[in-house]
Amino acid sequence: MPIRIPDSLPARTTLEKENIFVMTQYRALHQDIRPLKLLILNLMPTKIVTETQLLRKLSNTPLQVEIELLRTVSHDARNIDSDHLESFYVSLVDIRDRFYDGMIITGAPVENLDFTDVDYWPELCEIMAWSKTHVHSTFHICWGAQAGLYYHYGIQKYALPKKLSGIYSHRILKPNSPFFRGFDDCFNAPHSRYTAVRQDDIEKLPDLELLAVSDEAGVFAVKNHRSRQFFVFGHPEYDRDTLALEYRRDAGEGLKPDVPAHYFPDDDPTRAPVVTWRAAAQLMYTNWLNYYVYQTTPYAINTINPEMAGEEPDDASERGGL
Predict the structure, then answer these.
(1) Is 51 an annotated catalytic residue?
(2) How far apart are CA 10 and CA 52, in angstroms?
(3) Each residue of 169-198: pLDDT tens digit?
(4) pTM for the whole structure
(5) Could you tell me the domains of the chain?
(6) Which helix (H) or strand (E) element contains residue 147?
(7) Would you say the C-alpha torsion 115, 121, 126, 130 has a positive or negative sign?
(8) Phi, psi of 29 (to 5 degrees)
């Protein structure tokens, strides 16, 4: 089934070439259903690349999904044409009175800064506070996950000795969780970060549930017990060449990065990476949308209850449907 995006969004051409069903706004208006409303707060400097990566993962859903893109206005985005932001992005001021079934908060290349030193930190806090009453379930990625855990639960991030970059194996701690339904016992996912949260800090808080970890990369996935907030510390949405491009960029800037772990065949950066994480990544986003958004979000979206207990239904028959 399709994702619904603006007709002229650059990602549309890429996705259609990959035979991903993209529905334009014109066609969507002729379907008599309520689509899931998803908001993506895109904090990455490579806006169009990140849009395409996430839309690709959100495309395998059982119903129409309407996407809106959110930006921070307190940060001057320098790597994207201002016309693109004006055409496709909204600010919190524009949507303050709207409600959303789901929201994604991306990572950002600011993890070596203290949270409060990030120029848009006050605005991000305002957005996360707003999400508690206007979004049914929020999916935080990498630095966005660190920021979310710090804002909501006061959990600190810690500097790593060097950049963690590569494809790492993870084990599932909650095999019966619908978030990992259909997964193998172990799965791969990309990581690219300089900081980490500690498992002990998470386990001290009864409201948080640790879902998956990596012996090499540490904490991977956490959610709260109401299933209203998910925190994923890798980048399952990354393309085949994303880590390679980051490695070459860092090398070109004289940072002398290590070759990303378990990524290039024989650790040879002249060889093309082999993708080993795509299927798990697709399933993760599909499970989140199905079990934690579609099956539990209210039909009357403006009745989202911030205190509502989370559910993990087995199928869509447990709710009214959209």
Answers:
(1) no
(2) 8
(3) 999 999 999 999 999 999 999 999 999 999
(4) 0.86
(5) 3-317 (3.40.50.880)
(6) helix 143-153
(7) negative
(8) -65, -20
